[in-house]
Amino acid sequence: MALGRGLGELLGEVETAYESSSSNGNSGIQKINVHSIKANPNQPRKIFDEEKLKELSDSIKEHGLLQPIAVIEKGEGEYVLISGERRLRAHKLANIEKISATILDVEELKLRELALIENIQRDDLNIIELAFCYAQLLNEHSITHEELAKKVFKSRSSITNTLRLLQLNSYVQQLLATDKISAGHAKVMLGLDENEQKMVADSIIGQKLSVRETENLVRNLKEKLEITPKENNKVPNLDFKPLNNILQKLKDDDLKVKAEKNYLKIEIKSQDDIEKLSHYFNLQ
Length: 284
What we know:
This protein is of the alpha/beta class. The chain folds into 3 domains: about 5-15 and about 25-125, Conserved hypothetical protein from pyrococcus furiosus pfu- 392566-001, ParB domain (Alpha-Beta Complex); about 170-230; about 240-280, no CATH class. Helix content is about 55%, strand content about 15%. The chain contains 13 helices and 7 strands. The protein has helices spanning about 5-20, 50-65, 85-95, 110-120, 125-140, 145-150, 155-165, 170-175, 185-190, 195-205, 210-230, 245-250, 270-280; strands spanning about 30-35, 35-40, 70-75, 80-85, 100-105, 255-260, 265. The strands form 2 sheets. The protein has a 5-stranded mixed sheet with strand order 1-5-3-4-2, sandwiched between helices. Strands 6-7 form a two-stranded antiparallel ribbon. A hairpin with a 2-residue loop joins strand 6 (about 255-260) and strand 7 (about 265). The termini are far apart.
């Protein structure tokens, strides 16, 4: 499916489903049992704030559901959720048996795309979940960052910078997803290996480092890593004095010899030079 057309059509389908019933008799808003709705297996949201869910649940109990969820029908009395998982969870938390739902008449293969778009456009995913949404849309629909930016109304640089967070290890991603560290902190750690990332992340939390302080920590860490290999690989200046007699004999045989730092070079210009060396080292 071509992304330029496919995403636009799906966004239109979602908007239409929210705003009015389609001409299909199976579409429209209905009250359905919350226990007959299965979660969308492609739901990118993995972490739900329990406190915010409780607030939403209390609001629904007092004011009712202001926006229906969206589902597709899988069989007699069975549905799969497309969008509105927080609303569905809040209903269950409030022990409300029925929920208003818009039943969409769409193909099952569009489930993932619908869920990703709905979450990006409408919900408050944490930044790691958002990055996974972007990555899924890019990978599954073969689009560029520029095309995705236009479809989800974000800048191209915002898309790219968010996706780069997926280069971080899972430990740091979890801290970022649960607001233990900020995106500013996380971006500073890009390029470090897993152990370095964990060390820096633990330092941020334990020492309550600001982004600027984290930048200084990472800068010092990188400088240390750059200096250490140079020191370890430093070429020693060796003392060739114990070989002076041997070197002089080689030169007396008209062989060009150079002893410097950590190597001894004997220049061979002819077969006669090889014969001289062979005789000298008693290799015959």
